Amino acid sequence: MRIHFIAIGGSAMHNLAIALHKKGCQVTGSDDEIFEPSRSRLAMEGLLPGAEGWDPERITKNLDAVLLGMHARADNPELIRAREMGITIYSYPEYLYEHAREKRRVVIGGSHGKTTITAMILHVMNKAGMDCDYMVGAQLSGFEVMVKLSDKAPVMILEGDEYLTSPIDRRPKFHLYKPDIALLSGVAWDHINVFPTFENYLEQFRIFIGLITPGGSLIYCHDDAPLRALAEEPGRNLVKLPYFLPGHRIRHGITILTHNGHEYPLQIFGKHNLLNLSGAWKVCSELGISDELFLEAIGSFGGASKRLELITHDETTLVYKDFAHAPSKVKATMEAVTDQYKGKRVFACLELHTFSSLNQEFLQQYKGCLDSADTAIVYYSLHAMQLKRLPPITPEQVKLAFGNEKLEVFTDPEGLFDRLVKEEKADTVFLMMSSGNYDGIDLRSILPVH
Predict the structure, then answer these.
(1) pLDDT, mean over the chain
(2) What is the model's pTM?
(3) In Å, how far are 134, 193, 330, 427 from 66, measured between CA atoms?
(4) What is the dihedral of CA 187, 192, 194, 196, to 10 degrees?
(5) Is the pLDDT of residue 450 over 60?
């Protein structure tokens, strides 16, 4: 097949492009900006466009399909040309569903934890020698790419994002996958630029549950009250499997899972990660993996990239990077770190980067999120707000929304970096939370090199 990617540089899109290239397809692509690591990974496979920008001349009659990324706009000149020529156009999730139509589809959804749960399932299946296709939202240790497509694998594991499918398809991505096994980790309002009320956001999960194949399985977190109410609504022919916080204890800074009188040390920590583990366990059980095999395999799971990822440390200081950005994710990550490191100071820094987090009204949802930190900082980029065409917010508005008088607010990366470098390091855990990159700050440089 000859396939052209419009907006090939996205984290998901470039991985799909590489997967199809490895499968033997002839792949081309375009984008107006391509950042690392997408740029290097595309270049390594010979897929990096020769020039940035959109060019309708790239769209020719010999193309079998065009894949449209969310980064492109509805008036993209290449998209317009493809439509005029009648070429088949797929969104990212549409193409994945077409590939997995005859496979057993497992979809992991929820406002938080879906990347980690998907990663856990893939880790255990890999240890068990079980073949599967997959799509996951982060680079995983032991996996070359974030997307794998094959003709032989009987199962496909899909991370199910609730954000929009494409510029010309306003459905949430996870509505397209029609799972046989579905997991929902929780529901906490997000993406307010698309779902203006919590009720509207919640409805997307109700629709998702309605799209599970008849007789299929719905695995859900019993601890999450809105999700529990949604999952237990009557009227669907589904197997409903709630999951709970598993037995565990913390010893010498290590979280240990307890089951049937046995102990299983883990590399991960935090209540939210233990709930993620419990959900992954249920999915693996549905796929035929024994409890013994799951528990043996999960002990070597070190976490997904940027999810409580330890990026540098010395004898008394640790620096973690975490993808947390929505209020529920920030609260869960803060709770995990403060519980795990009771004898250390916690220095927490949150970058406001998404449309929701930079919205004046939604900002109120963060009240109290950073209160358990010894030092709490919020960073946001004025330039990013201009690019997103959002009304400006002031540091005073941020402090008021978080309800924390001691909160420090920075809007320039140089000032933030200077603050990080000068902070006392001994017996401190630095928790750097963002779905962005702090405008290029090298977080490893927080600790001086000896």
Answers:
(1) 93
(2) 0.84
(3) 21, 27, 37, 53
(4) 90
(5) no
Q: Which two tokens stand for residue 29?
A: 């692509």
The CATH number of whichever domain residue 251 belongs to comes to 3.40.1190.10
Do 383 and 246 lie in a common domain? Answer: no
Whether 190 and 265 share a structural domain: yes
* The predicted structure's pLDDT at residue 176: 97
Residues across the chain: 450
- The pLDDT assigned to 448 comes to 76
Tokens of residue 121, six digits: 């399932």
Question: Are 246 and 346 in a shared domain?
Answer: no
Task: Report the distance separating Cα 23 and Cα 46, nearest Å.
Answer: 14
Percent of the chain at pLDDT exceeding 70: 99
pLDDT value, residue 449: 61
Contact present, 168 and 184 (Cβ < 8 Å): no
Closest by alpha carbon to 196, among 359, 74, 330?
Answer: 359
Q: How far apart are the C-alpha atoms of 439 and 435, rounded to whole Å?
A: 11
Is the distance from CB of 352 to CB of 358 less than 8 angstroms?
Answer: yes
Helix axes 291-298, 271-286, angle to 10 degrees: 140
Q: How far apart (Å, rounded) are the C-alpha atoms in residues 432 and 347?
A: 8
- Is the pLDDT confidence value at 235 over 90? no
Residue 304 is assigned to a structural domain of this protein: no
**Domain count of the fold of the chain:** 3
Assign residue 82 the CATH number of its domain. Answer: 3.40.50.720
For 177, the domain range is 95-298
Question: CA 210 to CA 439: how far, in whole Å?
Answer: 41
State residue 317 phi and psi, 5-degree precision. -125, 140
95-119 average pLDDT score: 95
Please tell me what DSSP assigns to residue 309.
E
What distance in Å separates the CA atoms of residue 210 and residue 212, rounded to the nearest whole number? 6
Using an 8 Å Cβ cutoff, are 340 and 267 in contact? no
